[in-house]
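sry for the spam today, last one i promise. struct tokens for design, 258 residues
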């Protein structure tokens, strides 16, 4: 039975981190939290629940999560965001896996809660995530802020039953703030990688994102909320490419000025 280290990164997560930690304690042999400077009750809650608590100024989502991996005592790791928690079915599945670990990594569906409603349609479901794995066979990668676990080419991965529950946002204002923050990070990452962006790209990427959510992934079945979610994510896409185009134009003007 391999021991499991549960790993969380956090910043001002007093609202949900308690339920996150308690859900992990049912399956993990230790819980590690790396905090990037919370000024709310997050540190107090974590310490009261007996976790291994560390402080590290924010390095970027990917970099921060890989730093947190390094603080785990065991090679088999389960990584959650502070606003996530294991469902009862997923908890049972992970307990079963601990008795017979057969693969290098395990993915499962994530069920997102948006302004009080669970999203069982749109791109947000099944929203599969690989969060339980042998850290000797994979680490955090992807593109900030959309980090993901990247496994070695020879790694064996399978899927577990149950949902990872995610409290995505509690208000439209909160989500708008997230859109602004994530689109700025994503645009900067795309600019750093040399991604091009025409005016047409801004239009078709935004339009297609809405169609994916509302039509292809049947967001219309959620009615009004499905439209709101589809529109909001399309707006995030729009903001990313508008900001990227602005960065490119600013850099070009700077070069011309030289």
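last one done:
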């Amino acid at each position: 039975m391999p021991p499991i280290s549960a790993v969380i990164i956090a910043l001002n997560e007093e609202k949900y981190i308690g339920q996150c930690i308690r859900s992990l304690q049912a399956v993990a042999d230790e819980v590690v939290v790396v905090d990037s400077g919370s000024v709310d009750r997050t540190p107090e809650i974590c310490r009261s629940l007996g976790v291994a608590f560390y402080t590290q100024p924010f390095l970027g989502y990917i970099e921060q999560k890989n730093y947190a991996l390094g603080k785990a005592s065991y090679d088999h790791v389960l990584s959650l965001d502070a606003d996530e928690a294991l469902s009862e079915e997923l908890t049972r599945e992970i307990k079963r896996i601990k008795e017979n670990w057969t693969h290098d990594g395990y993915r499962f569906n994530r069920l997102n809660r948006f302004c009080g409603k669970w999203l069982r349609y749109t791109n947000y479901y099944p929203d599969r995530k690989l969060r339980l794995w042998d850290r000797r066979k994979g680490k955090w990668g992807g593109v900030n802020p959309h980090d993901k676990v990247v496994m070695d080419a020879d790694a064996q991965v399978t899927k577990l039953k149950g949902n990872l529950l995610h409290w995505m946002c509690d208000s439209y204002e909160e989500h708008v703030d997230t859109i602004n923050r994530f689109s700025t990070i994503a645009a900067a990452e795309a600019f750093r990688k040399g991604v091009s962006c025409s005016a047409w790209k801004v239009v078709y990427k935004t339009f297609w994102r809405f169609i994916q959510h509302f039509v292809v992934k049947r967001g219309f079945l959620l009615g009004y909320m499905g439209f709101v979610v589809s529109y909001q994510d399309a707006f995030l896409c729009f903001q990313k490419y508008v900001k990227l185009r602005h960065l490119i134009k600013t850099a070009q003007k700077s070069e011309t000025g030289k």
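Residues 13 and 216 are 34 Å apart (CA to CA). ok im logging off now
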